[in-house]
Fold:
Amino acid sequence: AQTVTQSQPEMSVQEAETVTLSCTYDTSENNYYLFWYKQPPSRQMILVIRQEAYKQQNATENRFSVNFQKAAKSFSLKISDSQLGDTAMYFCAFMKQSNTGNQFYFGTGTSLTVIP
Amino acid sequence: GAVVSQHPSWVICKSGTSVKIECRSLDFQATTMFWYRQFPKQSLMLMATSNEGSKATYEQGVEKDKFLINHASLTLSTLTVTSAHPEDSSFYICSVGTSGSYEQYFGPGTRLTVT
Structure:
């Protein structure tokens, strides 16, 4: 079974500063995908960034970047120049492909608050 | 990305009754749909994966006779909570995808309250 662990239930950061959210996972799969999703108060899940496990290069999307350490099974999210709109729950997710379709497993989430 | 809707967005039902939640993919041929449950301040827990035209695959611990899933077309999946009890009160979220693709698009969720 796949497990995803986020060890920081809550975090806060000053506006314009940088914050890193941690995520580790456990799997025996070799090919998989990793994601960070944002869930604002509206509860709508929004994709922030994704990483293919076969790619060594860390993914970046504007102010968001990841530090993917495959051997350590670690997948942290760095948010630069934090903005008030970044306040949300952040979920790390693991995806594997199977005969019945892609299966996603989510971590327990980190509640991020950006302080003005 | 795909636009996914859920109906209703919020429902209250009495204990012992059944309630149906619809998940529609408005502009995307969803060969696979997922149903999640999210308790307050907790993560999304995958309940089941459904492929169009076939039976859903349920995660361990999820009662298939209680949570009936139908994926009749590429644009519609339904989750029916049968004989609902207060402990079934939760936020139910669907997502859609296609075989072979890592993309997954989420619906806005349905809040179920069982009194």
Chain A has a mean pLDDT of 93. Chain A touches chain B at residues 33, 42-45, 47, 50, 52, 91, 95, 97, 100-109, 111 (CB under 8 Å). The first strand of chain A starts at residue 3 and ends at 5.
